[in-house]
Design brief:
single chain; 971 residues; alpha+beta; Isoleucyl-tRNA Synthetase, domain 2; seven-stranded mixed beta sheet; four-stranded parallel beta sheet; 39 strands; aminoacyl-trna synthetase; EC 6.1.1.4; Leucine--tRNA ligase
């Protein structure tokens, strides 16, 4: 009976689907365990062998937990909204919903392209997903609840005093009773103080405008990354080297009215929560850096809007008083305030236009235009380029009253701190470089040194240690800590500063000027946003003919013919009916890609609940995710936003826990092994790799499917690949072969090094693929794919099969296992259980190979050994394990059979194989019980005929015996 993986795997995949073998229960006497994968975006390219790595690891763990008696939730779904589907729709004229559906379910798209389909590809690999709970973020029955969460955020505010979010109606009651003077809320910086009487006298529109300054999600004019080529705003992590990650289009900074999420309210909780979760230190550190907590002072520098003597005279002629503005600066080093040499504003800072003099206007505007083309991330990363422009304006030092020149420079970011820096070159390397670069120019003062006994002629002194402040009036002689406190106290006394904790974390922009995303449940009355009542959700994405922005620059939803809200009928109606009396315009932006992925793990808990995103009972049972596996590229964006939404929903009484993901593991990347051919420059002749030395060749990537495991190129396939290669000639090696070069790179279609799991499953079976991916190396590390290694793993499975079957059928017997049989089995039980708990899957596969080799050499076919062995193998190679279990006479799935129990006694050695030496040379071995004394060992050895033969009648001068170690006869 031969091992036929294709037949076996199809059989058991059908069985699992028909019997819902892996369906989790929402109430069970078993303990729960929730294992989650970061769900995929379903692109038309489908899966390559790198994609399933994390899924296989989570599946091994899920299956292991079922064997241990847990009620395991292991779901899968699709993050199906987003930019790629929309770009593809624009290029091909297809509807994004159609291409998304085909990408998931498989089929033929409008262009006649055959799409494998994510679902079919995943099923072929044999995952134990609870498919009954599948979610797709682009389905209305899912995004109905995303819209509901958005409304909850809109109707909430964050109380600093109690450190949590509350209903906005509670804040309104406070305003009605006492105004806002004593309210401690996370809100906009420019909120005006009002009394209860003033609030009650405001119009409804005035009240709404004020409440927008407090809501957890709000409309505001925001500096954004605008990508004209894509027609949308991009997040920082969607930009690489100043261009969009998708398409490579230029990105500029501009101000737009956007929806934003007040994630900054949760900065401290997001920071502290990292102490309570089992994540890698590198991911935690990434989040700490992104949150960016710093303690220091907020300092106000007064600046006059007199732009020059000419401007001042003009103002006086008109009998106008100069307007007074303040530059607010957050600094972590208030102890260095007397060392301020100049100030730098972000080019986007609101004050720039107000304070720039007429003489500097042209230079400042040109610099701002240039800077707008660089992303925040690029500006942060570029520490070498020094650029800036003097505004012509001066600020007043709060203590000395001297004039401090005000510059703009793109190393200062509008989104961090206050968008302004008090530059102290003697204590900061970047300020030092800036001051020296512009040294001698108008508006750049000499560097001041405020550190005693420190030479700053060559570099700044940035350390806080061993600091003694000098040339600083009342701070002279103080160390860093004392000078900091004294400076803050003095600033507070004169009303120009205060102690402050600051965070780098900015509120998250929550708008996209795109079509393929969640519609906002928002309509506008008098230009102010109103929420649609939750009972009328979902607000379904309308059909449009064009997915590009409208001719007048509105988002694609501006093309929708039916996109207005009728407040009497409570439904979406024709856009032409807008009368701003009972029918109003709907929001034209859509939610960003991270909206649906910020809460999806909760939907899996109760995926078919039509009325709630999940019931209280389901949420209380599953609580949160026990194990989350996904790529490290989501270290900040997705994981931070998810934690924010979870904490908000916890505040509102919906989420049962503060943190969504207890344990997080980042799988490494499987890299491709690219194949290269070498063309002689200026010719169409290709030289085999082992013949290129001394030749002037151009390396060209070639499809890896034209290359065998010995790196030999199939020349005929290569010539048929591209028209310009039809007439190619080849210089072969001594064996008449063309050998390609190899290089490990990212697996990518453009590198022609993609290997699909479908091909591997078809040739070797899914169990081979699963085992091989786990065998490649530690889960967290990147490793190259090498198809040549597949055959070894396939050979192992065939050897495993032969323990159970010969050509005539099942050969398993009821023989009592030997001590060696039991030792091999229990070594494996111990190793595999420890490895899975420690996520060291690669060493488990090695142990399986060792065990099968040992049992084969022992000629073991004992049921007492082979039944538990099938269970051990099951998490890794579930199809063959199910078949073995069935052939052994069992009628139910192996998936929930108890994991074998390790018995240490089988690994305790009772005998020892001693080497017996004569004058230090080993002549034979003898196996003896370990509990024998030296005298007993000597008696047995001396009587052994092999000893008598070696001695040949002589009597040894000395017999050296160390029990458990050596036997040596001397003389």
């Amino acid at each position: 009976m031969k091992y036929n993986p294709n037949e076996i795997e199809a059989k058991w995949q059908k069985y699992w689907a028909e019997n819902q073998t892996f369906a989790a229960k929402n109430n069970s006497e078993k303990p729960k365990h929730y294992v989650l994968d970061m769900f995929p975006y379903p692109s038309g390219a489908g899966l390559h062998v790198g994609h399933p790595l994390g899924y296989i690891a989570s599946d091994v763990y899920s299956r292991f937990k079922r064997h241990q008696g847990f009620n395991v939730l292991h779901p899968m779904g699709y993050d199906s909204f987003g930019l790629p589907a929309e770009q593809y729709a624009i290029q091909t004229g297809q509807r994004p919903e159609d291409t998304t559906r085909v990408n998931i379910d498989g089929g033929v798209d409008k262009e006649g392209k055959q799409i494998a389909g994510y679902r079919k590809q995943l099923d072929k690999i044999g995952f134990s997903f609870d498919w009954a709970r599948e979610v797709r973020t682009s389905n209305p029955d899912y995004y109905k609840h995303t819209q509901w969460i958005f409304i909850q955020l809109f109707n909430s505010w964050y109380c600093r005093k109690q450190g949590k979010a509350f209903e906005i109606s509670e804040l309104v009651k406070v305003f009605e009773g006492e105004g806002n003077k004593l309210v401690e809320a996370v809100c906009d910086d420019n909120v005006a103080i009002f009394t209860a009487d003033e609030w009650n006298a405001y119009s409804e529109d005035q009240k709404e405008k004020i409440l927008l300054q407090y809501r957890m999600t709000y409309l505001a004019e925001t500096e954004v990354n605008w990508c004209p080529g894509l027609g949308t705003v991009l997040a920082n992590d969607e930009i690489v080297n100043g261009v969009s990650e998708r398409g490579g289009f230029p990105v500029i900074r501009k101000k737009m009215t956007q929806w934003s999420m007040r994630i900054s309210a949760y900065a401290e909780r997001l920071l502290q929560g990292l102490n309570d979760i089992d994540w890698s230190e590198s991911i935690k550190e990434s989040q700490r850096n992104w949150i960016g907590k710093s303690v220091g002072a907020l300092v106000k520098f007064q600046v006059s809007s007199f732009k020059s003597q000419v401007d001042a005279q003009s103002d006086e002629t008109l009998n106008m008083k100069p307007e007074t503005n303040f530059i607010e600066v957050f600094t972590t080093r208030p102890d260095t305030i007397f060392g301020v040499t100049f100030m730098t504003l972000a080019p986007e800072h609101d004050l720039v236009a107000k304070i720039t003099t007429s003489e500097q206007k042209e230079a400042v505007e040109a610099y701002i235009e240039k800077t707008a083309k660089r992303s925040e991330r690029e500006r942060m990363a570029d520490v070498k380029t020094i650029s800036g422009v003097f505004t012509g304006a001066y600020a007043e030092h709060p203590f000395t009253k001297e004039a401090i020149p005000v510059w703009i420079g793109d190393y200062v970011l509008a989104g961090y701190g206050t968008g302004a820096v008090m530059a102290v070159p003697c204590g900061d390397e970047r300020d030092y470089a800036f001051a020296n670069f512009f040294k001698g120019q108008k508006g750049m003062s000499e560097i001041k040194n405020i550190f005693a006994n420190v030479d700053i002629s060559e570099a700044a002194y940035g350390s806080k240690d061993n600091v003694e402040i000098a040339n600083s009036d009342f701070l002279n002689g103080l160390n860093y800590k004392n000078a900091t406190q004294a400076a803050i106290t003095a600033l507070e006394k004169i009303g120009q500063g205060t102690g402050k904790t600051n965070y780098r974390l900015r509120d998250a922009v929550f708008s996209r000027q795109r079509y393929w995303g969640e519609p906002f449940p928002v309509y506008y009355v008098n230009g102010l946003p109103k929420m649609i009542d939750t009972q009328h959700l979902p607000i379904i994405l309308p059909e449009v003919e064009k997915y590009l922005p409208t001719e007048d620059g509105l988002p694609p939803l501006g093309n929708a013919a039916v996109w207005a809200w009728d407040t009497k009928q409570n439904k979406v109606v024709n856009t032409d009916l807008v009368d701003n009396v009972s029918i109003f315009p709907l929001e034209l932006n859509t939610m960003p890609g991270w909206a649906g992925s910020s809460w999806y793990w909760m939907r899996y808990m109760d995926a078919h609940n039509e009325n709630e995103f999940a019931s209280k009972e389901a949420l209380a049972y599953w609580e949160n995710v026990d194990l989350y596996i996904g790529g490290s590229e989501h270290a900040t964006g997705h994981l931070l936003y998810s934690r924010f939404w979870n904490k908000f929903l916890k505040d509102k009484g919906f989420a049962p826990t503060e943190e969504p993901f207890k344990k997080l593991i980042n799988q490494g990347m499987i890299l491709g092994t690219t194949a290269y051919v070498y063309r002689l420059e200026g010719t169409n002749t290709f030289v085999s790799k082992n013949k290129i030395e001394g030749q002037n060749v151009q390396p060209i990537r070639v499809d890896v499917h034209f290359v065998n495991s010995s790196d030999e190129l199939n020349i005929e396939k290569f010539k048929a690949w591209r028209e310009d290669f039809n007439t190619a000639e080849f210089i072969l090696d001594e064996n008449g072969k063309y050998i390609v070069g190899r290089e490990v790179e990212k697996m990518s279609k453009s590198y022609y090094n993609v290997v699909t799991p479908d091909d591997i499953c078809a040739e070797y079976g899914a169990d081979t693929l699963r085992l091989y991916e786990m065998f490649l190396g530690p889960l967290e590390q990147a490793k190259p794919w090498n198809t040549a290694g597949i055959s070894g793993v396939f050979g192992f499975l065939k050897k495993l099969w032969r323990l159970y079957f010969d050509d005539n059928g099942l050969i398993v017997n009821n023989d009592e296992p030997t001590k060696d049989n039991l030792k091999s089995l229990h070594k494996t039980i111990k190793k595999v259980a420890e490895d899975i708990e420690n996520f060291s899957f690669n060493t488990s596969v090695s142990q399986f190979m060792i065990c099968v080799n040992e049992l084969s050499s022992q000629n073991c076919h004992s049921r007492a050994i082979l039944e538990p062995l099938a269970i051990l193998v099951s998490p890794y190679a579930p199809h063959i394990a199910e078949e073995l279990w069935s052939q052994l006479g069992h009628t139910t799935s192996i998936s929930e059979v108890a994991f074998p129990i390790f018995e240490a006694s089988h690994l305790v050695e009772t005998n020892k194989e001693y080497p017996v030496s004569f004058n230090g040379k080993m002549r034979f071995t003898i196996e003896l019980p370990l509990d024998l004394t030296a005298a007993q060992i000597e008696e047995i050895v001396m009587k052994d005929e092999r000893t008598q033969k070696q001695l040949d009648g002589r009597t040894p001068n000395k017999v050296i015996i160390v029990p458990g170690k050596i036997i040596n006869l001397v003389g």
